[in-house]
Amino acid sequence: VTHLKITAPQESPNTNGIDISASNRLYIYDSFIGTDDDCVAINEFSSYINISRIMCGPEHGINIGSLGKDGAYETVEEVHVADCTFTGTMNGARIKTWKRGRGYARKISFEGIRLINAGNPIIIDQTYVNRMAGTMGGEVEDDSLLSSGDLEISDVTYGGVTGSSSDARMVYFNCESGARFRDIVVEDVQMSSFLFWGGGAIVCGPQ
């Protein structure tokens, strides 16, 4: 998949640029994606996905997941994102899984990522709850009542991440106690922000 220009109005809800599920050995490169939701979403049972030289923005960034909704068993592995630029996005490089989910997300890398006034440059959220359902009139589970699932996130590397953030929190890992979360490497991250708050540049949750 190459040399595409994908656009959608910012007010068009939940509009992903490229949505990947149950796919393997896919290469996406040299394209511009500006939509209301994820530029690229990598979902269940996908592997060997290579993404490079993507211009992404505004709205969301490149996401693994969400995985494991309603306790489902789902897997993603061997995803490699390189030399991409995020401009004015709500998120940069993101992995999101639901509580009670089963399976794994592993062998993932984000390298050579440039962010321009982007929020949540690096984020892993193991307690993802889609609050969009509430705004659309649907029912949202109380995430405080859910126990951590067994979906493991491992062997994830972030390297060569540079640019500016719209959030003082540069790196955010939200991992519930008991959730499987290991072998995460963050190196050579050079980010700036004009925002200051008590949370710190690197935050590990939920406490």
TrEMBL record:
Keyword Cell wall biogenesis/degradation attached: yes
UniProt key word Amino-acid biosynthesis: no
Chief location: secreted
Protein's GO biological process: carbohydrate metabolic process; cell wall organization
UniProt entry keywords in alphabetical sequence: Cell wall, Cell wall biogenesis/degradation, Glycosidase, Hydrolase, Secreted
Protein origin, superkingdom: Eukaryota
Localization in the cell: Secreted, Cell wall
One MF term in the entry's GO annotations: polygalacturonase activity
Gene3D superfamilies linked to this entry: Single-stranded right-handed beta-helix, Pectin lyase-like
Database matches in PANTHER family: PTHR31375
Family of this protein: Belongs to the glycosyl hydrolase 28 family.
Protein name stated in the entry: Polygalacturonase
Species per Swiss-Prot/TrEMBL record: Linum tenue
Source lineage: Eukaryota, Viridiplantae, Streptophyta, Embryophyta, Tracheophyta
